[in-house]
User: Fold this.
Amino acid sequence: MTPLERQFVEDRAMRDSAKALFSADVAQVRSDLANRGVGERIGARIGEGAVDMADEALEMAGDNKGVIGAALGALLLYLFRNPLIDWLFGDDESGSDEERDARDDGWDEAEQY
Assistant:
């Protein structure tokens, strides 16, 4: 047998071996998909990721309670800023329209121009 024929036989044996290995892998994937579908696998993976992320967030929140409290306080102050400013610094706008007009200094920005 010539060296070229020997190389050809060795290459064919490698090819057949690789094909058998690939066919076994494909058969295993098909049997796994038959047991549990693609959608179920995706759902399980997303669910596992969400649970892991929630666990990590809870752990981090437990370690940083002060920061979370300050952030929530700042958020509440921001959301209720207008009523708080009116309550703290607002003018007493009670009374009739005539009383409010009397308190007005008569300056009208539209008349300025």
About this structure: The radius of gyration is 38 Å.
